[in-house]
Amino acid sequence: MKGVLVLLLALVVLVPVPARADGTWDQLRTQDGVVVLFRHALAPGTGDPPEFQLGDCSTQRNLSGVGRTQARAIGNEFRAEGVPVTTVRSSRWCRVLDTAQLMNLGPVVPTPALDSTFTASQARADRQKAATERIIRAHRGATGVVVLVGHQVNITQLTGIAPAPGEGVVVRANPQGRIEVLGTISQPELVG
User: Fold this and answer.
1) In 10 A of CB 3, how many CB atoms?
2) Contact status, residue 4 vs residue 12, Cβ threshold 8 Å
3) Strand locations in 8-155, DSSP E?
4) How many other C-beta atoms can be found within 10 angstroms of the C-beta atom of residue 148?
5) Residues near 65 by Cβ (< 8 Å), separated by ≥ 6?
6) Where are the beta strands (DSSP E) in 25-84?
7) Measured between alpha carbons, how far is 61 from 53 in angstroms, rounded to an integer?
8) From CA 88, how far away is CA 103, in angstroms rounded?
9) Staple 63 to which of 1, 67, 88, 166, CB 3.0 to 4.6 Å?
10) Largest Cα–Cα distance of the chain, in whole Å?
11) Hey, what domains does the chain have and what are their CATH numbers?
12) How do residues 45-95 score in pLDDT, each as one tens digit?
């Protein structure tokens, strides 16, 4: 397990998120089958406290005030860009549910496949990755955008990209079913 954590930390350092490609917002508005994998907004710290309990937010890392503002700004950016969101799914961790709800892009569906795999066995991480890939493939060819809000470790395992808090990776399943990265969405700029 220690080796897996070292590898994940190395990925965070070695795989930066590329700058947002021109046309990412156009892709979200006009292309079919597009899914955005968002990392939850700013929640200071790493991992979860030892007393972590899924149903008790007081035992978890939670969004900071900046993180709450960041989550609202992500939703505002989607609305300003006219992105048609059809579904919003989220990890069951409080910081992720709060991010998805504060984005205010539609009803939020808690989805175990998006739960953190930071301390998970490789077998569990692989099962969750496969379940997330099925969600993305199920949207292939469909109109509108699916928003999946989760954790850096899960997004990195799926895409090879380590997004910062509040950043998104835009993907879709190609005709062969492989997940392709189309671009990224940077953290929203917060004024004031």
Assistant:
1) 7
2) no
3) 35-39, 85-90, 108-110, 145-150
4) 29
5) none
6) 35-39
7) 11
8) 10
9) 67
10) 46
11) 2-12+19-185 (3.40.50.1240)
12) 888 888 889 989 999 999 999 999 999 999 999 999 999 999 999 999 999
